[in-house]
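Researcher: First entry.
Model:
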Amino acid sequence: MGTAWFNEDPDIRTEFKNLNIITPHIEAAYFAKKVVTRQENNELSVSFERIPRTFLGRDTYVIIKMANTSQVRNEVFKLSILTENKNLTGTADQVLTLEETDQSDGNAYSTRLSTDPEVLRNPTNPNSPVIASLYNNLDDFEDTLIYKIPLRPRDRATFDTWATNIYKNNLVHLQFRLESDAYMLHKKTEIAYSTLLAAKSLTFKPDTDTSTSLTSHFTLQNSIVYEIYHPDNVFNPLGTHTHNGEVVNKRIGKVDNNEATQATYIFHNLIDNEYEICTCDISKVRRRDDGEKVNPSSLETNVPLGYAESRPAAGGDAMTNYYYNHNNESTIQANLQDYYYILTRDDPNGINKDYGIRRYKLLNPNNSNDLVSLVRMPDDLNFDEAVGEDRVYAAFTYRNTQRRFCHVDCFAGFIGVLIQLHRDDIICTGMCFGDSTSYPSVTHPNGDSVDTTYLANLQREQLKVNAFRDHYFTNILRGSASWYPNLVGTRLSAGHNDHLHAGDFSSNSVVILNGEEQQDE
């Protein structure tokens, strides 16, 4: 037998053999990403995968699984994101003011229990089908709160401060708080009845079930993040624009980050699953003008006097670099990228070498802050996930080149091209070197162009040209041999009978997700 008192009066009580207190409680709470599965009947089901980290500026989900929810079926629950340690803002347990959405006032995100969660719909394009109607397992979330949260502040200045703090402090942890104005919430634990009166909000350290002790932290990291979308992904939040004469969804979004030392490239496929294609190291070097031939004859081998020093070039056709100061002075500068111009030449004694000498001047020699961000691309890429129309396949190899640096934005476009093509025979003959020069090309400095060998026939190559144009390459150059003149959307340029040049990637077409700022061109 047992006795329960309902207030301080000892006479107001009841005796019982077994007392079961049924109250809403939290079974699990965690940060997550959405995972969509296409089944044999072509229907889609959705689930959520717990994640231990994300990058500053990205969207993420918060999942809260509840039990005994009949009392709170129509209640509004508010979720706030908080710091766990003081490394992000200088204060622990601080509620973050994040970018506003349709469900948010910037500090708290609201939703209610539902068998048709609004967050699983597409709020960004009213003309697209309601994706929620395609998920055949929405009843699985009858007792689940689902929030989609942009982990970025409202303004770019605050974002930059947070990025600096992440860079300085390394480990930045987040947590979240669930609140309910009218009802009481509880973790999944045995509780005394008297404690029911106190719990109207609960704070959760993420990535752990609430019935267990803390096992790990949710970490926020720095990276420049590119969100690349399948053209028919209806969850694409980037909006539309007129591109190549038609109104289409924008393809590439970017979370910019001044403190990032790496760039992460993420693709969202047709059914809105996300895949991290690769992460590349970033370097910032002086921006250079288009190259130019130094001597009238491409076979000329003499190098003008007055260079400060010479060094072996990175490789491929480039053999030697010669570094010149602004007035051809003989003093050696500490930083090679600051030389007024660089001469590059091939091996004059080599076989079948006739490229001669090229000069690459600084675009703005009097502005030491005129920098371009380059990524060191992977040594070949072979990413392959999912199947059928949901497949994400990005593959290429190099041939006869060490020009394996690319403008950070341009590489996002190239990845989009590779995924659109779904081919295993794309051969790249180079972008630029790590010093932003591009020997023997005079049109590749700063890594905003991609050279590829021609595919086997006109039909295949035209699809490649179309993919480059779809991903913001604005200047497609081809040769005059064979069927090359029939490539629509290209123009003739001497020296392009052995490769297609996709150039002048338009960084202005990339959507900045965390506030506007001047971009590299």
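Researcher: Second entry.
Model:
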Amino acid sequence: MKLTTTLAIALGVTALTACNNSAKEQAADNIEANAENTADMIEENADAVPGVTTDANADAAADAVRANGEATADAVRDGADADGNSAN
């Protein structure tokens, strides 16, 4: 009986740990996807307006959005919160 209880608790803890990691990963993936979509829209809007300067500025802005999205997603994956103190 004790072995069964111990195994059940171990299985439950493992399942909760896996859920926690997958939730962080899902949130990080969503952040990256939103940043990518935003960057794509910036580039598409710039392509609709004639002018080389607009395209160059838009490309730079899109690159900055992508980089920010990746950095934010990495912070979520690492478990850091907004003020740098880990809540986990």
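Model: Note on the second entry: The radius of gyration is 21 Å.
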